[in-house]
Amino acid sequence: CCCPPDCTCKWTDWIDVTYPDGSDRNSGDYETFENILKKDPTWVCAKVENISCRAEKFPEVPIEDLGQKVECSVDSGLICNNSDQRPGGMIQIPVCLNYEISVCCVPNRPECLPNTIPSTTTATPSSTTSSLPTSTTAPTPSGPPSSTTTTTTPSTTTPPTSTT
To answer: Can you give the residue ranges of the WxxW domain (predicted)?
Structure first.
């Protein structure tokens, strides 16, 4: 009859909505989901499953190797504060580089949203609590537009056990 819905996350193009102000120590580069929505109210991502962050001028260098303190997470996006930077390594200026992100988004359809997935745990009469994994790892997609990937999602998940 019908194909099941495709809820596999899809990688976005590289997103760069802010630029660090090098003259303001209280500034930085903020490629957050909130800022992306401010720039593009039509941007829709039901759930971010993975994220890739890179420096615009050093796209092939992993951000860990740049010597800057940068947060790159599926919860908020990328945050780089000028006040956290120190000259050294590859970067001799105490301000954030300009970063860009690509995210793997789950389609914004009701059948793909996390709160509509039926629970697979069952309670027994002697059980007072049940537990679900707090996070899951999606099948590995084809990858972001570049090979530089930094992720903060867990790499393994223990599935619930069942007995028959």
So the answer is: 11-105
Report the alpha-carbon distance of residue 82 to residue 137 in Å, rounded: 32
CA distance 127 to 139: 32
Residue ranges making up the domain that contains 57? 15-106
Neighbours of 86 (CB within 10 A): 11
Give the tokens for residue 142: 């084809």
Judge whether 8 lies within some domain.
no
Q: How many domains does the chain have?
A: 1
Q: Measure the CA–CA gap between 11 and 101, rounded to whole angstroms.
A: 10
What percent of the chain shows pLDDT beyond 70?
A: 65
- Domain presence at residue 124: no
Question: Is 85 contained in some domain?
Answer: yes
**Digit-coded pLDDT (tens) for 102-127:** 999 998 888 887 654 443 333 333 33
